């Protein structure tokens, strides 16, 4: 993965400045900065000097020296004017973050943390009502985007440095976490309306990156499992990485070629890893492959942070050009008070985040979603996918009949072919039996001259057809089995909808079960109410801190009284802190009640899960039967075509077999006759009666017949005397049955 092409990054446009009654030369140099790090330095200096000016001259909102300040709003292009020097500071600070984001998106991949720091300072220290592009939602989105891209840069460096697989996986997982936060902001309807047309482009890129870096995280978890010789875990991590990468590829349509190159490169790496790991495990290690959800999730490692902005840092701002106007004590005291407010916010947020983490982990372990904790409503109607199939069959009432008829025709042709092939086989076996009998009678293999050659060809062709028939027979059986499997479902889908609904499983809950469900849903609603209240109180605290400016009081307060003034001013936050403490303390009781309710819900949950599984299985089975219909009809027609062709060939082969067997029988008769002719003539004896015309006494089978039989038998060769009568040469075959019996009996 070291050579993977880089993904593009999001960068922000700079705001354009308008009217501000300030020194023209200073204003020009501050708003028309070059797009490089020198420009960032200029903006920082200008921001610092504005801060110094604000601490000495009353140029804030509603103050005596306030003048109109105009800047262009990024998304709408409208000019926005405020009489507040802090508006100028906010816009300069926004441009500082935007310029850092632009530099961070370049090849050098730096300064994303600086951009995040600028936007964080802007969000936490300035009002959000100045313009849409500096609202709390937009700034939070920008911060998460910049942190995600900064972590992405760190991930690139970690892979180039060949850091340990587990560390790379955690860094990549944190990239996913930052982009998920950004995606949640992009999906917010209010944020989407503020961003306008760029919202879709940003959301599409961020969603693709979420899946892509999740794939990278699981790729490196698989590499770690490989290093630990956990070959089953290696397979599931690589498989998960492959699945997530495929999702990223789906979301990458329309993205630039650099994205496509990165995805192709990563697919080559992950695909190769997965195929190799699966093959090794299947043939060598044979380790059980665990389910992914049984393995410990990859926890992100946030190794980047928003770099803090200090507007009064002398190393950045340079000399204070307004130092002689106002004593620095007031400014320094204001900075100290700002730090006290920041400390208060950090303390409160640490408690909130700790409780939120516990709550998130608890809810993840419970796997309880208030929206789907009971799914009873879905059993009240036939799902759309099934309704679609029922509607399709309602306009095709002959579906089942056509399928049955088609299979019956196929069975008929199949039987005809089987009968023809059996008759051919019987003829061949009978011919072989006669041939063996002749060999046994002659005591040797009969000479081959003149033997009909057709039988061998018939036998060979018959074997070929039998083999085809045997293979097709298995397919035919499977086709009938599949038809029988789907026939009942097709009849059901083509019938009344009431029958379809009745065929779908439905849960049967007692009143106690319903009460358990209602109680669980009530407590889950309490959990959500607790979350919403906590977020609202946090937002109120942030807004209150941002608006808290005691500079005027500091100017008139003695330095020795500053600490006391801070304490008094910070008391205004006590009531909010009490509300937050109560909210956080209530969490333990709410979770305990949820645990008890979940225990009671376990049996109901199991029953509902089983019914839902059966319901889904039934729906899938019915849909599969509908989708199998066309395939069954197609395969049935292919089977008919195959067997019709085979039937014609078998019929022709049967005719050839009959003719060949007849020719073979005639050939055997010729052999017998030749064998008789080869015998020496008999010694002269009394004249033999003619065989052409049978005397009456022979017809009757009297004593003369027996005498003639004995006479003929004495003249036969030794090897022909045991032949059955039907195999004797032509002249002897004319003897009546008694004479033949005499011959056969010897």
Explain briefly what this protein structure is:
By secondary structure, the chain is mainly α.
Mean pLDDT: 80
C-alpha Rg (nearest Å): 48 Å
| DSSP summary: helix tally | 23
Shape verdict? elongated
**Helix-strand category:** mainly alpha
Which sequence of SSEs, written as H and E, runs from N to C? EHHEEHHHHHHHHHHHHHHHHHHHHH
**Oligomeric grouping of the chains:** single chain
Poorly predicted runs are 690-717, 726-746
How many individual β-strands? Answer: 3
Strand content: under 5%
Q: What's the main sheet like?
A: 3 strands, antiparallel
Query: Percent range for helical residues?
Result: 55-70%
Biggest sheet strand line-up: 1-2-3
Count of spatially separate domains: 3
End-to-end separation:
98 Å
Main location: cytoplasm
GO cellular component, one term: endosome
GO biological process, one term: endocytic recycling
Subcellular location: Cytoplasm; Endosome
């Amino acid at each position: 993965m070291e050579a993977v092409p880089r993904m593009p990054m999001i960068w922000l446009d700079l705001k354009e400045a308008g009217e501000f009654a300030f020194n023209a030369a200073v204003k020009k140099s501050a708003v028309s900065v070059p797009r490089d790090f020198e420009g960032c330095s200029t903006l920082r200096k200008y921001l610092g000097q504005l801060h110094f000016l604000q601490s000495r001259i009353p140029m804030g909102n509603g103050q005596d020296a306030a003048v109109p300040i105009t800047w262009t709003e990024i998304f709408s292009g409208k000019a926005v004017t405020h009489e507040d020097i802090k508006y100028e500071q906010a816009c300069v600070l926004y441009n500082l973050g935007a310029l850092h984001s632009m530099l961070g998106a370049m090849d050098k991949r730096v300064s994303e943390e600086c951009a995040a720091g600028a936007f964080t300072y802007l969000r936490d220290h300035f009002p959000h009502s100045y313009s849409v592009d500096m609202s709390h939602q937009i700034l939070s989105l920008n911060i998460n985007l910049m942190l995600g891209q900064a972590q992405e840069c760190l991930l690139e460096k970690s892979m180039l440095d060949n850091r340990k697989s587990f560390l790379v996986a955690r860094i990549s997982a944190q990239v996913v976490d930052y982009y998920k936060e950004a995606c949640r902001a992009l999906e917010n309807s209010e944020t989407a309306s503020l961003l306008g047309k760029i919202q879709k482009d940003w959301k599409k890129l961020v969603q693709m990156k979420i899946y892509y870096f999740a794939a990278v995280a699981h790729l490196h978890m698989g590499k770690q499992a490989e290093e630990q010789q956990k070959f089953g875990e290696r397979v599931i991590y690589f498989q998960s990485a492959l699945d997530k990468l495929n999702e990223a590829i789906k979301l990458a349509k329309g993205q630039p070629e650099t994205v496509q190159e990165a995805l192709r490169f990563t697919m080559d790496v992950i695909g190769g890893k997965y195929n190799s790991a699966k093959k090794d495990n299947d043939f060598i290690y044979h380790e059980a492959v665990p389910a992914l959800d049984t393995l410990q999730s990859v926890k992100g490692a946030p190794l980047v942070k928003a770099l803090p902005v200090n507007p009064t840092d002398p190393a950045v701002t340079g000399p204070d050009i307004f130092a002689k106007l106002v004593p620095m004590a007031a400014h320094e005291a204001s900075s100290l008070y700002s730090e006290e407010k920041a400390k208060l916010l950090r303390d409160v947020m640490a408690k909130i985040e700790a409780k939120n983490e516990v709550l998130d982990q608890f809810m993840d372990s419970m796997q309880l979603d208030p929206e789907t904790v009971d799914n009873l409503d879905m059993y009240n109607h036939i799902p759309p996918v099934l309704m679609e199939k029922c509607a399709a069959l309602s306009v095709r009432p002959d579906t089942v009949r056509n399928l049955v008829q088609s299979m019956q025709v196929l069975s008929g042709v199949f039987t005809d072919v089987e009968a023809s092939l059996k008759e051919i086989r019987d003829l061949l076996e009978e011919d072989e039996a006669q041939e063996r009998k002749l060999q046994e009678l002659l005591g040797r293999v009969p000479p081959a001259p003149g033997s009909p050659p057709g039988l061998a060809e018939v036998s060979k062709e018959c074997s070929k057809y039998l083999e085809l028939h045997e293979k097709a027979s298995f397919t035919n059986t499977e086709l009938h089995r599949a038809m029988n499997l789907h026939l009942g479902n097709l009849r059901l889908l083509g019938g009344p909808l009431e029958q379809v609904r009745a065929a779908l499983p439905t849960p049967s809950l007692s009143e106690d079960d319903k009460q358990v469900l209602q109680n669980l849903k009530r407590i889950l609603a309490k959990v959500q109410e607790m979350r919403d209240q906590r977020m609202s109180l946090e937002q109120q605290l942030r807004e209150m801190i941002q608006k808290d400016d005691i500079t005027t009081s500091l100017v008139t307060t003695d330095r020795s009284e500053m600490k006391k003034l801070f304490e008094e001013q910070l008391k205004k936050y006590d009531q909010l802190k009490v509300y937050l403490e109560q909210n956080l303390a209530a969490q333990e009781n709410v979770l305990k009640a949820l645990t008890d309710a979940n225990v009671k819900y376990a049996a109901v949950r199991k029953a509902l899960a089983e019914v839902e599984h059966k319901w889904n299985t039934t729906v899938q089975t019915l849909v599969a039967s509908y989708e199998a219909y066309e395939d069954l009809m197609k395969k049935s027609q292919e089977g008919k075509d195959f067997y019709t062709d085979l039937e014609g060939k078998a019929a022709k082969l049967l005719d050839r077999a009959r003719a060949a067997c007849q020719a073979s029988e005639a050939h055997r008769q010729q052999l017998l006759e030749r064998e008789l002719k080869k015998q020496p003539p008999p010694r002269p004896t009394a004249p033999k009666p003619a065989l052409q015309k049978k005397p009456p006494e022979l017809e009757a089978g009297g004593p003369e017949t027996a005498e003639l039989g004995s006479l003929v038998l004495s003249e036969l060769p030794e090897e022909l005397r045991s032949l059955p009568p039907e195999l004797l040469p032509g002249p002897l075959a004319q003897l009546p049955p008694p004479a033949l019996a005499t011959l056969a009996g010897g």
